[in-house]
Structure formats: C-alpha cells, structure tokens
C-alpha cells in the first residue's frame, strides 16, 4: 500500500517538528522563519498494534509452527519436546507521512509558492492539518512571529481550508492542535474535532524508553502520546484495516490494506507469486489463534476458514496463502 497523509497548515505552526517526532529523529529542518520546508519531507511511520506482540508470544512458545514455502507446500515443525526460545521478528504496518510547506492566504493564486505547495497536497490521500494553539515565544524566550500576527486556531483553520477549497482540494482531514506542555489537559472549546499534541515534547520524548515515556505522561495527567492517537486516526481516515502473516514461526507481520479488499489482491500485497498462483487463503481470527495457542490447535478446533479469491479480508485475520508456482 502506498497511501500517504500530508501534514499541512500555516508556516511555523510545528509541522516539521511533528514530522520529526513521528520519525523519532531529525529529518525536516526546523527554524523560525517562513518556508523552511520547500520540497516535501517523506517518512514511513510504524502503526502501533498490541496484537502483533501477542501473536509473537504465541509463535515463540509454539511447538507446532508452520509456513508455506515457494512451492506452495506447507511445512510443519511437529516437535513436542522443545519450544522455540528465539524471539520472532515483528514487522508493524506502516503509513507514509509527508511534511508539506506552509500555506498562506492567497496560496491558490500563487502567493508564497502556493501553487507548488498545493500541488504536493493534491498527491496525498488525506490531510493532517496542524494548527498552532499557543505562543511559542512565551516558553522559548525568543520572538517567534505568527504569520497571522496572533494566535487564533479557528481563524487559521478557516484560512487554510479556504485556500484548499479555492485550489480544488477536498480530502479527509484530521485537525491537530499543537499545544504547550501545560495545555495538554485543557479543553480549547473550538468548534471542530481535534487531537492535542505538544510537538516539541513528543520529539523530546522519542529519546526515552517506553516506561520513561509513560511515567512522564502520567505526571502530566496524560494517558498516551498524542502521536499514537494521530497515527491511529490517520489509519482510520485512510480506510485501512490490518491483516497478519506468520512466516516460518520466525516473523509476524502486520499488513495495511483498504477495507473490502478481495483475497486475491491481498495475496498480491504480500508477494506477486502468491497472487499469480493463488489457490486459496486459510484464515483465523488473531484473538482466537492466541487463545488456542497454535495454528494446529486452531485447525483442530475448527477455527480455520478457507477463503476463495473473491472473498473480502476483514480486520484482524491471520492469513496463510496456498499458491502454486
């Protein structure tokens, strides 16, 4: 899947800082002047999914793991005397985020390289609209001028949305309020649905362990990182669901796919050979698989279903493809 989310907004509202926090490293240049970003920065971001770890636990302790080799034959490890002790590789699903330069009033008429930036937005599948909701000068001690001269999230959204409309762009959108650390629990009372993120804090927290992050957030009265909420919401906005594959008992992988995709197309996402030689797909709900503890046990319990090429995948299925080459 090559679906992407474009990070847009006025200049200097924290788009590049948010992008860098997504990728947990400095990629986009961050500075206090307009048009720091001219060419878009592109990054692939992992989608948090607790189901992956639970499936990995099943694999690592499963004496009867299996896989399908390139000849389409199922290979079994039927050992009952030893358990796997090596930890399987976990590969999360991922989506693409693109840091696009800030828009200003008159962008649809070419102001501030607006035509170029709008062209970049037309290429994405959804929009993550970042809005500045605090005065960064107050915490930094430096004068960081807002392009509209004052902080007004509702006005800023209207400015950008008008430019998108006049530019003929209409896409599913998430609104992200870039707030100060002290405002993470504040209700801003604005007339639109939003996710609160302190972009600077999230970038800084990227260097901490998961346990340290949770402890720091607890002290702030926040349950989880704003970025996790943004990634999850972006996934939904793109109409994506997740299916899983298990390779040789050594790797469990999450795959993003559009809801309603047929099994033959799903096979092609994993490997073109599977699509060309598709015979059938055997599937099991991830939770039922973790409950019984192995694919063999799931089969014995009647939990494995065989799907044809035209059947549609649903979220949370563990899929094994039968194919010929």
What does this structure look like?
The model is unreliable at 26-38 and 63-84 (pLDDT under 50). 32% of the residues lie in helices and 24% in strands. With 325 residues, the protein is an alpha/beta fold. The strands form four sheets. Strands 2-6-1-7-8-9 form a six-stranded mixed sheet, with helices on both faces. A three-stranded mixed sheet has the order 5-11-10, with helices on both faces. α1 runs parallel beside α6. The chain is built from twelve helices and 14 strands. β3 and β4 (74-76) form a beta hairpin. It has helices spanning 15-23, 50-60, 114-122, 136-140, 153-166, 199-205, 210-220, 226-237, 263-270, 272-276, 286-292, 295-300; strands at 4-8, 41-46, 66-68, 74-76, 89-91, 94-99, 126-132, 173-178, 194-197, 240-247, 251-258, 278-285, 305-307, 317-323.
- Strand residue content: 15-25%
The percent of residues in helical segments reads 25-40%
Largest sheet: 6 strands, mixed
Task: Please state the structural category.
Answer: alpha/beta
Q: Strand-and-helix sequence, N→C? A: EHEHEEEEHEHHEEHHHEEHHEHHEE
Distance between the termini: 24 Å
What is the helix tally? 12
Calculate Rg over CA atoms. 23 Å
Overall mean pLDDT = 82
């Amino acid at each position: 899947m090559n679906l992407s989310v474009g990070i847009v907004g006025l200049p200097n509202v924290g788009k590049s800082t948010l992008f860098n926090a997504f990728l947990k490293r400095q990629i986009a240049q961050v500075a206090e002047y307009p048009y720091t970003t001219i060419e878009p920065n592109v990054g692939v971001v992992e989608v948090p999914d607790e189901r992956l770890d639970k499936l990995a636990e099943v694999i690592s302790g499963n004496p009867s793991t299996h896989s399908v080799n390139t000849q389409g034959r199922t290979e079994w490890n039927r050992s009952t005397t030893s358990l796997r002790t090596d930890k399987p590789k976990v590969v999360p699903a991922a989506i693409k985020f693109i840091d696009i330069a800030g828009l200003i009033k008159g962008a649809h008429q070419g102001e501030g390289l607006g035509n170029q930036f709008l062209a970049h937005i037309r290429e994405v599948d959804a929009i993550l609209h970042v809005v500045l909701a605090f005065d960064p000068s107050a915490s930094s001690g430096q004068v960081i001028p807002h392009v509209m001269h004052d902080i007004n999230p509702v006005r800023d959204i209207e400015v950008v949305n008008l430019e998108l409309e006049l530019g003929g762009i209409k896409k599913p959108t998430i609104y992200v309020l870039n707030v100060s650390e002290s405002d993470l629990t504040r209700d801003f009372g604005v007339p639109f649905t939003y996710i609160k993120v302190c972009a600077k804090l999230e970038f800084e927290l990227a260097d901490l362990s998961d346990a340290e992050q949770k402890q720091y957030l607890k002290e702030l009265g926040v349950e989880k990182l704003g970025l996790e909420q943004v990634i999850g919401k972006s996934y939904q906005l793109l109409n994506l669901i997740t299916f899983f594959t298990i390779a040789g008992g050594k790797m469990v992988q999450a795959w993003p796919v559009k809801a309603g995709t047929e099994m033959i197309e799903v096979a092609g996402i994993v490997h073109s050979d599977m699509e060309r030689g598709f015979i059938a797909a055997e599937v099991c709900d991830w939770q039922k698989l973790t409950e019984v503890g192995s694919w063999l046990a799931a089969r014995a319990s009647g939990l494995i279903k065989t799907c044809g090429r035209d059947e549609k995948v649903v979220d949370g299925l563990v899929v094994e493809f039968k194919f010929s080459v």
